[in-house]
Write a structure and sequence with these properties.
Number of strands: 5
Strand content: 5-15%
CATH class: Alpha Beta
Helix content: 40-55%
Number of domains: 1
Order of helices and strands: EHEHHHEHEHHHEHHHHH
Mean pLDDT: 90
Number of helices: 13
Radius of gyration: 18 Å
Structural class: alpha/beta
């Protein structure tokens, strides 16, 4: 029998890597990192179509993945057969409605984070926001990053993605799970317990150990999941004001928070 397939989506800098590694900490999970952006699985559903058959084939191919990019290096030893196959993406959000409709996808998880924090984290990530770029020219539509329709950088794409996730949640209320990054950071044990229960995973000691490590250790690397300190807000004041006063964005954030676990 194939393991239950769980897909994690979220905008860049929204906590998808940490959430993915929390799942990866489970002995019962086979975790795969951004397969649709890898050479091994590049644009899989664009090539094969979004269907029950292509999802099943994708499941089998992911289990046999071999590239370092997809497998990553932060993998605790697994002693149990995988009951769940979990993969995460910060791109290709347009696939969420079609994927959620397929019976082979067990759960679709969407993690959201307040827009000012997402844009601020992007602004401070040296590999994401390059030196010399103008944040005023980039923060809304991210023209330097969004060179492909699959990309979801910048505030306009943050709103587009969150609106899409909420619409998919409304259509498939039991299948789509909305996770608040803020709630997960403030009480990871309770939030992850609810999330694991919703997807049918037990909370093992290995998971508890990883929660403790990732919330008590700090690394300055902008891409590390071990971060006890929140990045200081360094966005220009006028951008923070615009993000904080946009009625559409505030409404989306409020609705997402209300739907979160």
């Amino acid at each position: 029998m194939r393991p239950r397939q769980v897909a994690i989506f979220g905008c860049p800098r929204s906590g998808t890597s940490w959430l993915g590694q929390l799942f990866n900490a489970s002995e019962a999970v086979a975790y795969r990192y951004q397969p649709l952006f890898s050479y091994e699985f590049k644009n899989w559903f664009g090539v094969h179509g979004v269907s029950a058959a292509s999802l099943d084939t994708f499941n089998d191919a992911l289990l046999g993945a071999s590239s370092d990019f997809v497998l990553q290096s932060l993998r605790p030893p697994k002693v149990l057969p995988a009951t769940h196959l979990v993969w995460k993406e910060v791109r290709y959000h347009q696939l969420m409605p079609a994927l959620a409709a397929l019976p082979g996808l067990h759960r679709l998880i969407y993690i959201h984070r307040p827009a000012p924090d997402v844009i601020n984290s992007w602004y401070q990530a040296p590999k994401e926001f390059r030196a010399g770029q103008d944040i005023h020219a980039e923060y809304l539509h991210a023209p330097s990053k969004n060179t492909d329709p699959c990309e979801y950088n910048g505030y306009a794409k943050w709103k587009e993605s969150l609106a899409l996730a909420l619409a998919v949640k409304a259509t498939y209320p039991d299948k789509v799970l909305i996770v608040s990054y803020e709630k997960l950071r403030s009480d990871p044990m309770a939030q992850l317990s609810r999330l694991f229960a919703a997807v049918g995973l037990p909370m093992s000691q290995q998971v508890l150990d990883f929660i403790a490590a990732s919330t008590s250790q700090h690394e300055d690397d902008a891409y590390s999941v071990f971060r006890t300190q929140t990045a200081a807000l360094t966005l220009p004041a006028d951008i923070v004001r615009d993000l904080s006063e946009d009625a559409e964005g505030l409404d989306l954030a409020s609705r997402a928070e209300a739907m979160s676990l």
